[in-house]
Amino acid sequence: MFQRQLEPLLSRSFFIFGARGTGKSTFLKQLFDQGNYLWFDLLDSSTEEEFAKNPSSFKEQILAKDNLEWVVVDEIQKLPKLLDLVHQLIESSKIKFALTGSSARKLKRGSANLLAGRAFMNHLFPLTSLELEDQFSLDDCLNWGSLPEIFHLETEEEKQEYLRSYAQTYLKEEIWAEHIIRKLDPFRRFLEVAAQSNCEIVNFSNIAKDVGADTKTVQSYYQILEDTLLGFLLEPYSKSIRKQQRQSPKFYFFDIGVKRSLDGTLSQKSLANTYAYGKAFEHWVITEIYRLNHYLKKDFKLSYLLTKDQAEIDLIIERPGATTILLEIKSTTTVDDRSTRTLKQFKDDIQNSEALVLSQDPKNKLIDGINCYHWQEGLKYILF
Q: How far apart are CA 161 and CA 165, in angstroms?
């Protein structure tokens, strides 16, 4: 069992959203290992069918329990209409609800009752380095990602098979079974191309040509990935909203292992000092900051910067009440002035900012007035 960073407030009902396999059910079983609670798993076909045919049975079973404190409803997006009954019960009783979901899309499209602030929102992600503690291995995370199940598998063959099966489960259960798209083949091709374009600026028109679809369809596909919690868009940095909207975002899959499954590179190990290794390290650092930002409730705004001259800052972190971080991410084990050249151009141009380099260099350094940290020290500096 891993000690997760997520700490939902238990003073009222709450949602936990997260992709399949991130450990939502396990987390709640640990959280409610004692006390008087009732559990409904909507992935169980008989439970889903019962409540789909007779929603009032859901309310009746809850009210039949004496001294009930909590009700857990796993994968609430399977039956969004139950949220109306949850709303009623929150208003009329002291019962609290823990609701999980692996897709916000069906809730949004169905104009589901998201309880109007009566339930706090939380997210659960693949495991962070802080949660893994002694089991953390950077190279393992760069090759296999950090979904909890990966750490219960011993061989590389098992890990490859699990990740391939995960991708198929996503297509079958989240996309096709929910009738999110009409044609599966273009979306299947899109997933491979999107995985190959991971960490890069999204060129919607080029991807549309590769997939054999129009640009609007590809844009809707990316929205599906966001809504089903398979990844997130990193918007371009600009103080002007209009300028920001004229530029394309980058896209990051939520887990490196799933990304590698989708682009068919699971059998190719990420080797140090290669381009692929550098991109995997950048991917991992950015997703690590993204996850911890949510868990620690920092409200950081994340973006990237690319100029007309192709000078790029990997990540800009706007921190309320603190300096804005301009971050260069390098997988190298030896940082020198080549790692700080781009940051030197910008460190005086963005008000109340400081430039940092995060790498695998074990020695913290100051180069051209720019602090260069080992990634572990750098994450502590940024987040804590």
A: 6
